[in-house]
């Protein structure tokens, strides 16, 4: 264990860098509360998106890294701000007309448009928890509605009333003049309509712990700040939550980073210690726009899991968290193959290299052996030419290429075969565009066909690749990638593809000859 801990203490992997920062927060000593608290926040205004998963996945990676370098106990809380008023109707849910009748009500007071749960907030919370449970995360869930109504926030809310002027000074300094006129850190919930009210307060009585305001019909109303009668605006709520729970670490998207000084100040005014932060870059959709829960753009967790394993998604989340990344369907094949490349590399690495390998962080230091003897990208190309309708159709080719493989002994490959068929049908097949070869390409392909017909080297992928490479050189393709691009466009209907020698080994020499004949005759174009 000492070798592992020594390697972890020197690792440049970002989870270990963050873990060491948290350990330094207490100089390696036990916190007074008896544990280090990690938190992730969730705004359930729409269905959870893949960025929400990424926040918990990455926080879990840091938590595991911390557990490797320290014996201090840890907790991870997933906090849902489900008392937030529903400000707009998500684009990707049913019954928008019904939801419009409940705008500005707390999300846990809005009926569930799916008709499955107590409220819209409860529905979205359940979706979040289902997604997180799918990945086996260890976490404790806290609902803001419960937190407020059960009195667990009361001490901080009363302190906020006492220190109202100091808190308001922080907030007003960040607001435009027009907003300053009506702003308050407290949002009362109307006893009449049940809506969260963005109204100026007429009085804050610190001694009584109450706020006074005019309700929507003009009636002057006084409410206690405790018991779920008011909630804090979201920026003060952020910092107040840190103080109430004594949070040690929270990560959030770059769009929050400018508010970090505000969150920290609120926390400290309320008697807390600001946590360690980690600001990650945002996920973007295919058009380069930020993924949004209300828009429903970008990938969902369920969509990724339709086409690839949970581990490949975790791998994608591990990579360069401070770099903005497109989150679209076309990133899936690369993530799958890179994940398995790292699994294969792990077994050959020493401890120092292993703790820097993404799969260490995905599998908590105990990654499995990869049985993906055929890359996912190659399975997609096989699906393109094999006319297979199910996994069994692909396995006929796979077992000729790797006789020792079977669905039972290679379950990850078996699952990937099913994923590849789905991915091909939905994304590759509709976009395939075949073309006829140029005269120069035709001559080279006819030569390649002749060499394959005379081939007696078995299914040696490297030897076949060398032979394909030699044909391109002999026919003067410069750069040589133009030769492979021609093969892909004429035979596979795409501008990119696999190592062609490996493809021939998997698909078969005779089958590849027949495919070349189709490409040269124009059958594929037709």
UniProtKB/TrEMBL annotation:
ATP binds at residue 293. This is Lysine--tRNA ligase. It holds the Pfam family tRNA-synt_1f. SUPFAM superfamilies: An anticodon-binding domain of class I aminoacyl-tRNA synthetases, Nucleotidylyl transferase. Transmembrane segments: none annotated. A motif ('KMSKS' region) lies at residues 290-294. One of its GO terms (biological process) is lysyl-tRNA aminoacylation. The lineage of its organism: Bacteria, Pseudomonadati, Pseudomonadota, Alphaproteobacteria, Rhodobacterales. It is found in: Cytoplasm.
């Amino acid at each position: 264990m000492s070798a592992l801990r020594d390697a972890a203490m020197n690792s440049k992997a970002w989870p270990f860098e963050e873990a060491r920062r948290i350990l330094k927060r207490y100089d390696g000593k036990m916190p007074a509360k008896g544990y280090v608290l990690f938190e992730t926040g969730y705004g359930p205004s729409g269905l959870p998106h893949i960025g929400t998963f990424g926040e918990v996945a990455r926080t879990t990676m840091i938590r595991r890294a911390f557990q490797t370098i320290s014996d201090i106990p840890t907790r991870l809380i997933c906090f849902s701000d489900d008392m937030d008023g529903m400000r707009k109707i998500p684009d990707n849910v049913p019954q928008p007309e019904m939801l419009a009748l409940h705008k500005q009500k707390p999300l846990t007071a809005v009926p569930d448009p799916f008709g499955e749960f107590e409220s819209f907030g409860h529905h979205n919370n359940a979706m979040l928890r289902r997604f997180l449970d799918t990945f086996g995360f260890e976490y404790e869930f806290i609902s803001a509605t419960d937190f407020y109504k059960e009195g667990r926030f009361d001490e901080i809310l009363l302190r906020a009333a006492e220190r109202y002027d100091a808190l308001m000074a922080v907030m007003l300094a960040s607001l435009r003049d027009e907003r300053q006129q009506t702003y308050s850190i407290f949002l009362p919930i109307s006893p009449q309509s049940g809506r969260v009210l963005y109204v100026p307060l007429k009085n804050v009585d610190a001694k009584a712990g109450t706020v006074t305001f005019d309700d929507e019909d003009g009636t002057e109303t006084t409410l206690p700040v405790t018991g779920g009668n008011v909630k804090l605006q979201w920026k003060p709520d952020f910092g107040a939550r840190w103080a109430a729970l004594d949070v040690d670490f929270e990560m959030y998207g770059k769009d929050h980073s400018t508010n970090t000084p505000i969150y920290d100040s609120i926390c400290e005014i309320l008697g807390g210690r600001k946590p360690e932060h980690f600001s990650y870059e945002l996920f973007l959709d295919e058009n380069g726009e930020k993924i949004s829960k209300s828009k429903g753009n970008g990938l969902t967790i369920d969509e990724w899991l339709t086409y690839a394993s949970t581990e490949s998604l975790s791998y994608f989340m591990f990579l360069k968290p401070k770099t903005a990344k497109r989150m679209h369907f076309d990133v899936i094949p690369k993530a799958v193959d890179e994940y398995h490349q790292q699994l294969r590399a792990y077994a050959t690495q020493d401890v120092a290299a292993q703790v820097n390998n993404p799969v260490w962080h995905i599998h908590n230091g105990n990654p499995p052996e990869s049985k993906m003897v055929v890359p996912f990208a190659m399975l997609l190309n096989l699906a393109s030419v094999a006319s297979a309708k199910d996994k069994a159709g692909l396995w006929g080719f796979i077992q000729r290429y790797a006789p020792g493989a079977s669905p039972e002994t290679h379950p990850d490959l078996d699952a990937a075969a099913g994923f590849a068929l789905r991915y091909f049908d939905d994304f590759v097949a509709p976009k395939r565009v075949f073309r006829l070869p140029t005269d120069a390409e035709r001559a080279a392909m006819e030569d390649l066909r002749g060499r394959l017909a005379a081939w007696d080297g078995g299914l040696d992928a490297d030897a076949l690749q060398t032979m394909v490479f030699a044909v391109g050189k002999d026919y003067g393709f410069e750069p040589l990638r133009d030769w492979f691009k021609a093969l892909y466009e004429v035979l596979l209907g795409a501008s990119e593809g696999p190592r062609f020698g490996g493809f021939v080994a998997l698909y078969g020499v005779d089958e590849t000859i027949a495919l070349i004949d189709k490409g040269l005759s124009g059958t594929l174009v037709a």
